[in-house]
Target: TrkA-N domain-containing protein
Amino acid sequence: MKAQQFVVIGLGRFGASLALELMEKGYEVLGIDHNEERVEEMTDKLTHAVMADATDEGVMRSLGVRNLDCGIVAIGDNMERSILTAILLKELGVKMVVAKAISILHGRALEKLGVDRVIFPERDMGIRVAHQLVTPHLLDYIELSKDYKIVELTVPSCMDGKSLAEINTRAKYGCSIIALNREGGVIVAPTAHDYLYAGDIMVVIGSNESIDQFEEEAVNREEAEA
Ligand code: ATP
Model:
């Protein structure tokens, strides 16, 4: 079942932006922070924003937190409070508990407590930005497993006007273009007769090795042409 009602605990930069995005997507969000200013800032923007200590079981019960589908612990810096809050959400019976970790050890502790999803925003964003900096055409990527990924790349000018048959990524590199996104719309599962145009976004699936090779070749060719 998809979560409909969320409680976000900790309305710092991470918690606040997550809560606002959920609101934007039409979900109900209860925001909790023990800092008055942070709560005031969010009062008009969330379904409810409450000033409370999230480690206080009585308060959390009275707020009806246990009836919500998903709890996000967005407290990072104070590991003790983050862990106590995560335990409390689990004990109260919140179906899905997500928590932000600031170190591997913190993450491991949260996992051991049964937190359903541990996220490392700073670490993951650092990795993502590093990838994007060294691969100019890379817009985004998803790791499917240790060895496979899906990437979004802008089509370089050296591929402008070429058909997928000409580019032939499957035979040359072992990866496949599974979608094209351009101004006119998205082409899902393009065929060999579809064409690439510079600036289009292509979604490519394959092994890390095959995609890295494809990226490198596209970029190198682009640089050679420049
Ligand atoms: P961010 O990196 O997201 O900007 P931050 O650096 O401001 O966060 P953190 O220590 O990660 O600070 O805490 C995030 C938020 O959680 C803060 O607004 C803080 O007031 C709140 N918070 C911390 N402990 C509790 C608690 N026990 N109950 C409620 N809110 C808490």
